[in-house]
Amino acid sequence: MSDATNRRSETVAIDEVITTVIMARVTDFFGFFVYAIASVLVFPRLFFPMYDSVTATLLSFAVFSIAFLARPLGAILGDALQRRTSAPVRIMAALMVFGSSTVAIGLLPGYDAIGWTAPALLMALRIAQGVGLGGAFDGITLQLQNLAPEGRKGLYGMVPQLGGPIGFCVAASLFYVLVGFLEDDEFIDFGWRFAFFGVMAVNVVSLFARLRLLSAGFGAEIIAPKSAPIIPMIREQWEPIAISAFMPLASYALFHMVTVFPLAYALLYTELDIDYVLLLQFLAGVLGVCATIASGVLSDRFGRPKVLGFCTLAIPLLCLTIPLLPSYPSIYIFAGFILLGLAHGQSSAIAPARFKPEYRYSGAAVSINLSWIVGAAFAPLVGLALTAAFGLEASALYLLSGAVVTGYVLYARYGAAAFKISWASTEEN
Asked: What is the dihedral of CA 416, 420, 425, 429, to 10 degrees?
């Protein structure tokens, strides 16, 4: 076989991996955002009707946060299962746990039907979702970075992150249709449930996509990552775990403050139509997709630290637009999604390269789960609580705290160079 034929075969194989990765991540985040949007529009009224709307939403957000705390447990159980069986068995079991718990949420009766049993079941199923998501970690970013040609690691590392804004766009568009075409009582009684049943359908697609990836012949030694014992890894690799967890914290704080929080604020404190806000967020999500792609190009051109440094410096400016949410919501939402795409596009690609090869897979899993817990899990809850107590402007404190942590770690690791943009290219990532 000629060299040209080999190159064509390798290109096709990489293209198939990229396509499969995008399919898997979009379906994951679609299910993630279906729950997130329902936690604003449905669950406060269905499971906590005995409280005022703000308190009910805060309780709904508290349940929302539980899944992130359960993710490390899912990762531990997944590692144990993988060591006894195989990576495909781990992925299949994890996605079945996530998918079945998601469908079960769609079947739950409300508080009016079964009392406190309803929110208790919601909490239990939310924990199961977190366990499933934690167990389904597959190190895709690491795989793509290893497959990437020289000088394109930022672009390839960005690919899995496309699942976030694309998955949000799909979920937002679905709820836009449900809210817009159903009467309010129809939506609360049964309409929202179709979104959760749809998650199970796309979860099957995700399952087959991941299994195809794990059984791919190209790069098999990369596609089937090995987990490492957790205690020795933490003892030996605690410093790269801390750096990889806290350096992208600003992007994780942005994640829910531009998706879930504006929706909750609009519903509770403004007269804005929810379908209008969902439409704005869908359009902003499209810009977020473009910004995510741009993050890969910029990372390969200037280096990942400079991309994160720019986003960190831009967050205080974004905070200045939060007071415009009641009157001009598009300004904060559009700017927020663009900044989210730039920051989130490189967030998980930070972790893998910092670990020793034998710890790379498990180290990335631990640091990413830690970033989600510290940066994103409580963002809607804290943001809304600050708003309820001190006003809308106070919600910016959460975003600023993430920017401060990311800025400190960037400065400690790279110095002032991380915040200086020059036209000279760099290989530092």
From this structure: 50
Q: Which amino acid is located at 320 in the chain? A: L
C-alpha distances out from residue 380 to 198, 256, 375, Å: 24, 6, 11
Of the listed ranges 35-39, 79-83, 245-249, 298-302, the one predicted with least confidence: 79-83
Q: What's the whole-number mean pLDDT along residues 213-240?
A: 64
Tell me whether residue 239 is exposed, middle or buried, using C-beta atoms within 10 angstroms of its C-beta: 0 to 12, 13 to 18, 19 or more: exposed
Residue 101 · residue 66 · CB < 8 Å:
no
**What is the rounded distance in angstroms from the CA atom of residue 132 to the CA atom of residue 92?**
10
CA atoms within 13 A on the CB side of 351: 31
Residue 96 has pLDDT above 80, yes or no: yes
User: What CA–CA distance (Å, rounded) separates 248 from 410?
Assistant: 9
Q: Are 380 and 61 in contact (CB under 8 A)?
A: yes
Q: Say if residues 241 and 234 touch (Cβ distance below 8 Å).
A: yes
Tens-digit pLDDT profile for residues 304-354: 888 889 999 999 999 999 999 999 999 999 999 999 999 988 876 665 566
3-state secondary structure the chain: CCHHHHHHHHHHHHHHHHHHHHHHHHHHHHHHHHHHHHHHHCHHHHHCCCCCHHHHHHHHHHHHHHHHHHHHHHHHHHHHHHHHCCHHHHHHHHHHHHHHHHHHHHHCCCHHHHCCHHHHHHHHHHHHHHHHHHHCCCCHHHHHHHHCCCCCHHHHHHHHHHHHHHHHHHHHHHHHHHHHHCCHHHHHHHHCHHHHHHHHHHHHHHHHHHHHHHCCCCCHHHHCCCCCCHHHHHHHHHHHHHHHHHCCHHHHHHHHHCCHHHHHHHHHHCCCCHHHHHHHHHHHHHHHHHHHHHHHHHHHHHCHHHHHHHHHHHHHHHHCCHHHCCCCHHHHHHHHHHHHHHHHCCCHHHCHHHCCHHHHHHHHHHHHHHHHHHHHHCHHHHHHHHHHHHCHHHHHHHHHHHHHHHHHHHHHHHHHHHHCCCCCCCCCC
- pLDDT, the chain, mean: 85
Query: What are the Cα distances from residue 239, in Å, to 75, 246, 355, 372?
Result: 20, 11, 10, 18
Handedness of CA 325, 329, 334, 340 (dihedral sign): positive
